[in-house]
Amino acid sequence: MPTLDDARTFVGNLVVPSGARFAIVASRFNDFIVDPLIRGAFDAIVRHGGDAKNVTVVRVPGAWEIPAIVHRLAAKRGFDAIIALSAVIRGSTPHFDYVAGAASNGVGSVAASTGVPVAFGVLTTDSIEQAIERAGTKAGNKGWDAAVSAIEMVSLGRALDEAGL
User: Fold this and answer.
1) Phi/psi at 61 (5° precision)
2) Partners of 58 in beta bridges
3) Is the pTM of this model over 0.90?
């Protein structure tokens, strides 16, 4: 009887493939949170074997603007993966819901329509304290986590390409 062990299985690994190029699209708004996310993402790429010269950082005004630039970069096919970084912190108005939803939906749409992996490192928190925790303190660095996801997706994509899938 065949088992799951008989299936062809593909997984990415956490070593940056040779020549892989990454774009980090990050907001300037809430830069005291976003700057550590950028440093975390960059550090993850380099520590996993990536070339610092193959990392491009693009700063946009806020999370709302991220999808447009992610789409532009993905459409040009100059990057193997894109990492979106921002911090949207809930306030007392519905603005949070609009911005967080637009960023999430927009980035997801780009990844689905272009096939370019886009890692979502946009923090959506209820407080500044939660954002700080996710930018390199108690809860780790979500920029690092997003970059590791991007690395794995690039590796997986190359493995699928090699298999003709």
Assistant:
1) -60, -50
2) 25
3) yes
Instruction: Give the position of tokens 């997003």.
Output: 146
pLDDT at 5: 86
Give catalytic residue positions: 95
Six token digits for residue 108 = 């997801």
> How is residue 18 written in tokens?
């040779």
Could you list the residues known to form a binding site, using ranges.
29, 63-65, 87-89, 92-93, 120, 134
Domains in the chain, start-ordered, CATH in brackets?
A: 22-29+39-157 (3.40.50.960)
CA distance 7 to 114: 28
Q: Which residue has the higher pLDDT, 137 or 30?
A: 30
Per the annotation, binding residues for (2S)-2-hydroxy-3-oxobutyl phosphate are 92-93, 134
